[in-house]
């Protein structure tokens, strides 16, 4: 679109992204001749894909296992937050149990009497 003479603003509206993104992409294209993104500048991964699968497998095999147990079993020094991220990436986020007061025998008896009263 830019080679056809379109403005940066028009291209941005057409492809539904910011003008800055179009400008950056165009500058990279004219400079390098490619649109491929460069490698990210973030922190390097502490675990490999194999170790990630091992973390997920341990959580699937034993759902009650905690992060610290998984951390010691992985064999790589990772922080518990990394374990949580890997599990969240596999859609295995922890769920808080619902706190409900348990019914006492007295409550059960009254509930049963109420059900019988309604049924008759």
From TrEMBL:
Pfam families: HTH_Tnp_Tc3_2. GO terms for molecular function: DNA binding. Residues 52-116 form the Transposase Tc1-like domain. Signal peptide: none annotated. One of its GO terms (biological process) is DNA integration. This is Transposase Tc1-like domain-containing protein.
């Amino acid at each position: 679109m830019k080679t056809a003479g379109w403005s940066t603003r028009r291209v941005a509206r057409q492809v539904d992204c910011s003008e800055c993104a179009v400008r950056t992409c165009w500058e990279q294209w004219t400079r390098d001749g490619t649109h491929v993104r460069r490698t990210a500048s973030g922190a390097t991964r502490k675990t490999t894909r194999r170790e990630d699968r091992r973390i997920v497998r341990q959580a699937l095999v034993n759902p009650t296992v905690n992060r610290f147990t998984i951390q010691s079993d992985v064999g790589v020094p990772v922080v518990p937050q990394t374990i949580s991220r890997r599990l969240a990436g596999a859609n295995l986020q922890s769920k808080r149990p619902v706190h409900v007061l348990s019914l006492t025998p007295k409550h059960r008896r009254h509930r049963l009497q109420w059900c019988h009263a309604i049924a008759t």
